[in-house]
Write a structure and sequence with these properties.
With 267 residues, the protein is mainly alpha-helical. The chain is 63% helix and 3% strand. It is built from five helices and two strands. The protein has helices at residues 84-124, 129-178, 185-192, 196-216, 220-266, and strands at residues 52-55, 59-62. The protein has a two-stranded antiparallel sheet with strand order 1-2. Helix 1 (84-124) packs antiparallel against helix 2 and helix 2 packs across helix 4 (196-216). The longest helix has 50 residues, at 129-178. It is flat and about 80 Å long.
Amino acid sequence: MANGRKLGQLPADGKCSACGEQVSKETGRCEGCGAVYGEAHRCPHCRSIADVEASEALRFRCSVCGGPRVVADDPALKREHGENPALELARKAHARRTAWQMGSAVVGGFGGIALLVALASLAVVSPGFFLTTLALVMVAAPLLFSVFGFRKAKRAGEERDAAIDRAWTSVARELSEAHDAKLSPRQLAKLMRIDETQAELLLAQVSVDDFVRSRIEEPPEKKARVADDDAIVTDARQAAEEAAEAAEAAEVDRGRVHAKADADAKG
């Protein structure tokens, strides 16, 4: 496959320069050998125009350098690549997670072996309380470091996942805006190579983020008007509740008066 070649823009004749087969205008991918064309497929890490491959940890990763990628199969779109900073954070966090996991596993393995050897030796020889305690502390240190390392790896994994979420939301927003916010979940799913459920969640997240951003960026005058309107609505609601309570109390008093009048009449 010619995935790693810098194949540039879509060929004018629509034919793949690597195998001569037809190149899809919708995805920029050769239907024969799978080579990709267009800036939409440029990796933000190694800068190669390359396709992606599925990854359990990264969702998609570059087939050349292995860095996290977000798919946007729209070669006609002039990308802004606003997701690149988040993808760079995800790449670094993933590297830290891998390093902590490997280091913790190795140190923990040696620590476990040392603990078994120490326990076997102490079962045969009794060096005394001080030396026994010292030996156990020494063999426990690698195990404690291993626990610490796995916790660091977990934290790095959470940072990676959060950064990847931000990157995918950024690309979904860019695609939605390019289609005048008329992009359906099915269309987004096709462009990003995901299922419709994930596409619906992404579009919902984009809507929520845009709403929060619009409220934050509102002029102070508009915020003041909104606050005043909210205060008026709240006061009206409280007044209505108080009126209802007063009417209920009056009805109870009226019932008591009628009951007393009936009792006096019978007396």
